[in-house]
Amino acid sequence: MGHGARKRLAELLADAEPEGDFSTRTELPARALRIEVDGVGELPLPLRAPVTKKLIAQARQARFGRGEQTLSDTSVRDTWEITPDRITLGGPDWDRTLSEVLDGVRHGLGLPPTTALRAEPHALLVYGKGQFFLPHQDSEKDDSMVGTLVVSLPSHHSGGELVVEHAGHSVTHRASQEQLTFVAFYADCRHEVKPVTTGYRVTLTMNLLAERIRPADGNDGSPAADLAHCLTEHFTDPAEQRYSYGRPETTPPNRLVYLLDHEYTQRGLDWDRLKGADATRAARLRQAAGQAGCEAVLALAEVKETWDAVPPYDRYDYYGDVEHFDDCEDEECEGECLLDPDGEPGAERRRSGDFSDYELGDLVDDEITLGWWTRPDGTGGEQISLPVAYAEVCATTENKDLTPYQSEYEGYMGNYGNTLDRWYRRAAVVLWPRQRSFAARAEAGSASALRELQGHLDAGELDRARTLAQSLAPFWKHHGSGEAAAPLFAAALHVAVGLREADTAAMLLAPFRVETLAEEHAADLAAAAAQYGRTWAHHTVSTWFGPVGAYTGADRTAWLASLPGLCTALRTSNGDGDAVAAPLTEGAWRAIQHQLTGWLDVGREAERRAGMERLGAPLAHVLRACDPKTAKTIAATLRSRPDTILECLLPALRSVGRRPTTPSDRAPATHAFSALADHCETVLATSVARPVRPADDWSLPPAETCRSLCDLCPDLDAFLTSRSRRIMEWPLAQAGRQHIHSRIDLAGLPVSHTTRRQGRPYTLVLTKTDAVFTREQAARARAGADLVWLRKNWPRTPR
Fold first, then answer.
1. How far apart are CA 260 and CA 145, in angstroms?
2. Under a CB-based contact definition with an 8 Å cutoff, are residues 650 and 613 in contact?
3. How confident is the model at residue 670 (pLDDT cuts 50, 70, 90)?
4. 55, 59, 147, 249: which is deepest, by most CB within 10 A?
C-alpha cells in the first residue's frame, strides 16, 4: 500500500508540467544594443573580421572551473575572453529591452511569477575557426544564480552551435547573422559550443540571478487534495520492504523524499529559485503538506545506482568465455595462469568514462543520502547526513533518465560483474508529519533538533527535554568528525550536561569521534565529567577513539597536534577536566603504540624507517599532553623496545627542538623527553663505537622465524649467517622458490634471487649484494650525524 501512495503522488505531479522548458530563445534587432570594449571602442553590428581581430588582441585565453580550481586548457575550452569590467552596455532603450527579454526568459524557463530575473555580465567571448568548448556545466557564481544568458552578437560565421542538454533532451541554437540572439538555460544544464568552421562567433555571457518580488501565497491555483491524501496514506500505512521475504509489516515511514529533476548548489537551493517543473511540483507539494499537517524542506541528495549492464559490443567468444590475456612470466605454469594487463588473475579492467550506449538490465542496488537541507522556518540551511530508505523515496523522473555526473563499469569477474555504477546529484522536497518533526530532523544529525532540546532545558522543562532526548536512541548514529561535526558536537555536549542523566548523555555523545574535540569544548567536557563521574568519562572517551588499529587517516594526525592545548584547557577548567584528559592521552598513546609495534616488525628498512618517522611528531604531541606520571611510563616503555625504535624517537625529539633551558619553558613531559634523549645517545654512541665490518665478512642476521616451520629456512639461515658464503645455488620447485623469495623480501635482506631455468627443478640463485657493506656504512654515518645533533640540542643533564 505504501508503494501505491508514492506511485500515485508521482503520477499526480507528472501532470504538473511547467509552461516553459530548460532552455529558451529569442531574437531582437541589432540596433537594440550598443556595446563598447576598452581598447576597441563601440562595436559595429553585425561584426566584421577586422573588428573581431581587434577584440582578440585585447582578450586573454579563456579559463574554466573544475571543482575548486580555475584552469586553462585549450583541449577543453579554446576561446578568447574579455572580462566584464572592460565592457560597457547601452543603447536607445537597452534597460527596457533587457527587462522585457528577462521577463520572457522567466516565462520561457517556467520560473514562478513571484520571481524577477536580473542579468549580470560575465564575459565577452570570441571563437575563431576551430575553437570550441567541450560539454560542461556552469558553476553557480552567486547565491541567487539560476541560469546563464548567452547573447550572440550578429556576425557572418558557420559552426559554433550552442547545444544545451537536460534529462536526455537537447536543443541546438544557431546564432543569427543579422540580429541579436538571446539564449537562456538553467545553470545545471550541460552544454557545449561546437567548433567554428568559418568566421568568428562572438557572444556576451551573463549570469541570470533570481530575486523574489512578492511573497508566495502558497497556492498556485492547482488542486492539492489528492496529493494531501497521498501524503496521509504514506505516513499512515506500514513501510513497504523492497525485499520482504515473508517479514512482517513495519511501522509507517518517517518521511517522504520526492526527487526533483534539476541540480542545485547549497547556495542556490531556495523555494523561489527552483527551475522548470521543479518549481510547479514543489509549490503543489507545499500546499498539500499544509493540508496534510506536514512540514516540508528542500534538500540535496547524492544518489548511487548499480545496474546490470551489457556493453554495446560482444566481449565473449563463441563458447561464452571472457577474453583473457596470457602474460605469465613463469614458464612452469604452461599457460594455466591467465592474467589481464593489470596482473589480476581472471579479471577484466575496470572501465570509466561515458557509458550512455550501454544497455541497462535490472537495478541491482541503489543508495540515496541527503547531505544538506533547508530549515523548516526558512532561516538558511545546514549540513546533515541521512541515508534514505527505499520506502521513503518518490520521483516522477527516474534517475536513469537523467545524466549521471560519474559512471564506472565493472566487467565480468567470475562470480560477479557486468555492472554499471552511476552517480547523480539531485535536489528533493522532504516532508514529514509535524508531530514527528523533532525525530525527523534529529535522525539526520540536525543541529536544530539539539537547539530545540536546549530550548526546553533553558525553559526549565527538564522532563520534556529528557523524553525527547531518549527518543533519539534508536537512530542517533555516527555524525562524523573534525571541523564539520564540531558545531553539532558542541550542541550535543551542552545538552548532555544539562540533562543530568548519565545514560542519555552518553548516548548523545557516543556517535562522535575524538577528532571532533577542540579546546572550545573543554569547559563543557570538564563539567560533564564532574557531573557524571570518572568511570562515565573514561567510557565515553573510549567510544570516541573507536577500535584500536582502525584506520584514522590525516584527521587523527592533525588532531593530535591540538591535543596538548586541549588537555591544558581541560586541566584548567572548572569541574574535573583531568577525568577527560587522562583517557584522551591514554587512548592516543594506545593507538600510536599499536602502530609502532606494527612498524617495528617490518623488515624492509626504507619502508619501516618512513613509517616510524611519520609517528615521531604525533608521539611528541601525546607526550606533551600527558601528565608527568603517564609520560614517565610511556618513556620507560619506549626505552624497552628494540634499538630500531630510534627511527621514531629521534624525529620526535627533532619536532620538540631542543632541551628547555629555563623553568618557564619546562612542560610536564620534560623529564620524559630527557630520558628518551639520554637513551638515544647511549644507543647511538654504542653503534658508532662498534668495529667496522671486515671486508671479507658477508654474514647477515637470519631471516625472521618461519611460521610454517619448513625444512628450507634452516638452510637459508645457514647461508645468511655465513661469513664466507656469498652465492648459493639451490635446486627448488616453484613453491619452494616462492617461499624463499618471500622470506628474503619480507626481511628486507640485501640478497638478490634469480631463477636459472635449466633442468628440473629450476635452480634458485641467491647472491649477497654489496649493500651488505654500504647499508652498514650509511647506518654508521647516520648514527654519527644523529649523535652530533643530539649532543648539541639535548645535552645530558649533569648528575
1. 18
2. no
3. confident
4. 147
297 membership: H or E segment, kind and range: strand 294-310
DSSP state of 125: E
Query: 476 and 508 in contact (C-beta within 8 Å)?
Result: yes
Helix residue ranges per DSSP H, 75-164: 94-109
**Grid cell at residue 181:** 540572439
Task: Name residue 552's amino acid.
Answer: T
Q: 3-class SS at 178?
A: coil
Using CA atoms, how far apart are residues 783 and 796, in angstroms rounded to an integer? 17
Tell me the three cell numbers of residue 473. 536512541
Q: What's the burial of 149, exposed, middle or buried (CB within 10 Å: 0-12/13-18/19+)?
A: buried
Contacts of residue 456, Cβ cutoff 8 Å, sequence gap at least 6? 462, 464, 465, 468
| % helix, strand, coil for the chain, step of 5 | 40, 25, 35
Across the range 731-760, mean pLDDT stands at 87
Q: How far apart are CA 622 and CA 560, in angstroms?
A: 7
C-alpha cell of residue 497: 550536561
Which set of grid coordinates corresponds to residue 380?
Answer: 538558511
Higher pLDDT, 333 or 737: 737
Closest CA to 172 of 156, 155, 159: 159
**How many helical (H) and strand (E) elements, i.e. helices and strands, does the chain have?**
22, 30
C-alpha span between 704 and 723 (Å, rounded): 19
pLDDT band at 504 (very low <50, low <70, confident <90, very high): very high
Show the cell assigned to 592: 600510536
| Cα separation, 478 vs 633, whole angstroms | 34
SS (H, E, C) 452-474: HHHHHHHCCCHHHHHHHHHCCCC
DSSP 47: B
**152-156, 488-492, 525-529, 535-539, range with the lowest pLDDT:** 488-492
On the question of a cis peptide bond just before residue 46, with omega within 30 degrees of 0, the verdict is yes
Q: What are phi and psi of 443, to 5 degrees?
A: -60, -25
Could you tell me if 175 and 160 are in contact, meaning their C-beta atoms sit under 8 angstroms apart? yes
- Helices 534-545 and 522-532 cross at an angle (nearest 10°) of 130
Query: DSSP label at 398?
Result: -
The per-residue pLDDT for range 541-598, each reduced to its tens digit, is 999 988 766 656 667 888 999 999 999 999 999 999 999 999 999 999 999 999 999 9
Side-chain half-sphere exposure of 713, counting CA atoms within 13 A: 15
CB 13 within 8 A of CB 285: yes
Given a contact cutoff of 8 angstroms between Cβ atoms, the answer to whether 571 and 544 are in contact is: no
